Amino acid sequence: MRDLTGIVKAYDIRGVVGDELDAEVVREFGAAFTRLVGGPAIVVGHDMRESSPGLAAAFAEGVTGQGIDVVNIGLASTDMLYFASGHLDLPGAMFTASHNPARYNGIKLCRSGAAPVGQDSGLSEIQELVTHGVPEFLGAKGSVTERNMVADYAEFLRGLVDLRGIRPLKIVVDAGNGMGGHTVPTVFEGLPVEVVPMYFELDGTFPNHEANPLDPANLVDLQAKVREVGADAGLAFDGDADRCFVVDENADPVAPSAITALVAVRELAKEPGATIIHNLITSRAVPEIIAEHGGNPVRTRVGHSFIKQTMAETGAIFGGEHSAHYYFRDFWRADSGMLAALHALAALGGQDRPLSELMAEYTRYAASGEINSTVDDQQARMRAVADAFRDRNGARIDELDGLTVELSDGSWFNLRPSNTEPLLRLNVEARDTAAMTALRDEVLAVVRG
Fold first, then answer.
1. Of 51, 52, 85, 98, catalytic
2. Each residue's pLDDT tens digit, 282-306
3. Are 25 and 17 a contacting pair, CB within 8 Å?
């Protein structure tokens, strides 16, 4: 019996190659996934990590061993795999460890139409099958066909966001040696956008910096290049290119909440009165702006499975998260950093102001960003914080996802436990920097006390 508890996460499978993840166990995952979703075929893609092609091939063996065909799309970003799943109406498997270091790899799974597979939507069943052994299939094996879908993916995205009429733009793109280096050239081909490439060489050892733009240290090179070449904006993709971070012409980072609000306004212009999803850590400016433009803001927990589920239940046209995941109904409710980037550039190029002035419309409050604290007992520390604020005049407390406290002056914070580490994650927002700093320090004093 295998112990898979260390590699089967809430939303995907991820572990150290060789120690936790090898061809044998991946083959079993392929067979188990096939048992869950059936045929007629499963689409498989992979990133640029050295281990990815071999692991993807082992997974395909597990699928074909159960009598089901495989469509191998080869090198792909995660949102390209979602596109293939939606376009071909097939379940999919993407081999990537996103922004994790080179020694890691993993599998992101989806049902037909890019529908998510997580612990509550099939992953636990897959884990159970692999743990106890997948039954052998005695019929004829399936076959593997190769299909390059980069051009189809690019054409589809350009059909959702029209950039042909915008003013010419110069943008710097830092692909971090990840899959953005594979997709950006095709997506931007023929558009009035001059792309200044950085680290487009596919290299799963990440020789220049981690492919994790959530860490400000990994934006430094992009910011320097934006200033050097006088670019209108900069884009930074993570390793599997499903997330995109934006910096303005001054090389200042643009908050993902502001991008969420911008895209929401653009989508509401196409479909007035529609529902927009935002997670509970996005800026309070997001639901305010959605409502001001006639939309229906709906708040949800953090995490793509919750976002996609709520989008399906409400018919929402768009959803955004503080972590730079952006979800589009017209993209099978899947997330695509590239699509969000195209929206941002279309908005920028459709008017004459620089990006900093454009985005000022969508930025209203001071935010702390996510602050992690290592604690011995997550629940005890959260109870201590709740007790500290429970009797505060006008305070409202909810536990939709961790602990959220809203104060009478409009400031708020959310404190959430990590699922995988002994950490508490704090996000604070207030009317100005001084108020945010004071509230942040007050909460941290209890968390770390």
1. 98
2. 999 999 999 999 999 999 999 888 8
3. no
